[in-house]
Amino acid sequence: MHSSILALSRKKAIFDGMKQGMYFFICWLCVTPYLLAQSFDEELSVKKMVKDLEVFKDLRIKANSGIYKYRTKEEIDSTYRWAFDEIQKSKTFGDFYNIVCALTDFEGSLHNDTSLPKEVNNLIKKEKKGYFPYPIKLVKGEIVFNIADKDVPVGAEIISINNKSLDEIIPNLYKYYTTDGLNITGKSIGINYHFSKYYRLHYGLEDSFEVKYREHKSNDVQQTIFESVGYVDYYKNVKSRYSKPFDESNYANHGKLGENGNYGYKKLNDSTGLFTVNSFSIGGNASAPEHLEYVEFLDRTFGKMKMDGIKNLVVDVRYNGGGTDPNDLVTYSYLTQRNFSENKQAWISFRKIPYLKLNADSNLPYFIKILGVGRYNKQFEKAFPETKDGGYYQDDTSSDHKVRVPNKNAFTGQIYLLISPRIASAGSLFAAMVAGNQNTTVIGEETMGGYYGHNGHVPLSYKLPKSKIETSFSVVNLEQDVPKKANQIYERGIIPDHIVPQTYDDYLNQTDTQMNFVLEMLKK
Prior knowledge:
By secondary structure, this protein is an alpha+beta fold. It is built from 15 helices and 18 strands. Strand 14, helix 13 and strand 15 form a beta-alpha-beta unit.
């Protein structure tokens, strides 16, 4: 009896010990990622950098059909030789991250992205000092101070920071915000909002910032010193930036706004209307209620335009960063007189998804991914059945090549298309199609999305094995159904017929330079 009780007591003690050990093990699992997280400024061995760069290069060549879209093989090979040489001079995780960002940006696809591991990013967000305190803005070729009620006047041109000219600093930050082809105007969208974070990633943390500046229309260079702030405090200042009332739409989540926010129409006068569409994130597909509501809005609006005898239509897509099919294509059917399709051709560079172990598109274990990947590979094979020139192409059965016709209420008058650096992806596909119309005049600034094509549709993400840096890209190389035009350059975004950036005075007055330009054009 006593021996049984003793045995039970021992079992209970063992069980309690196991429970306690399991408790501490679970706690250790939860805490360990933060204790062992790689800091951005900590050392990373050259051996690990080389291993990750070899993997990065190989997966881009095997899976990224856009790697040679804007760059020759010789240019890509040369850039990787630079990267391997640069690694030999590098010491930290941050050094390697900057090399990978430069390679990612060099390819020229706005759907390319390279991001920090979650743990590293969380550590950066907790940094309490080292950041340039105030937002800046690129205004007609000048980098200006973009916050009021501080020692430096709002709109003052910044000449240098810690003896580095802004002409040197800004190009060094381009790599953190990708755009199509060789476009750089679109990079202003990222730099205007994230300047201090980008500066920290490239130049490191700095205790203070000696700033040289001059007030507008003054030749006198003045100087001041700003103490650094933390990550969170910088973004608080961004939210208080002077230009926010005018440029917040560049950063808004338009997909949730609906009619009169996401899209809308108003009559400007007896012969002129204004049609605005800020995003194509309107429902997930053709059967979504939001999409059907949008189609009903289009039919009602363009039908009324026809009844009202509208002869001039301003189409404002300056804040359209993309979205989902078929919103862009349906919208274009109301603005064209030609038959059209989504693209002329589309292809991928692999038959089976490579580097499955490193794929970061889900948190599923590798053995489960293996079970499911066959289905995805079959879907790719079905969607891209033709083999040609080393790639795998869509055929005539693809819905992307479906010939679409103009809507019965399609607008036939003069179109004035307003564009900006914010326009990307499905937004730039739509804008390129409208820009290709003979009855369209394009006004504004070059888009970040390309005129002739882009890489899009299907994103793949990978986590590099040693650094855990995540890199992603869209695998479908698309040639858009647009006409060749003398002023449209293959490696660039959509080029306006009238290049109209916001003027300095309009920046100070929060005035819409481009809308005023088109209204004056209509008066004449």
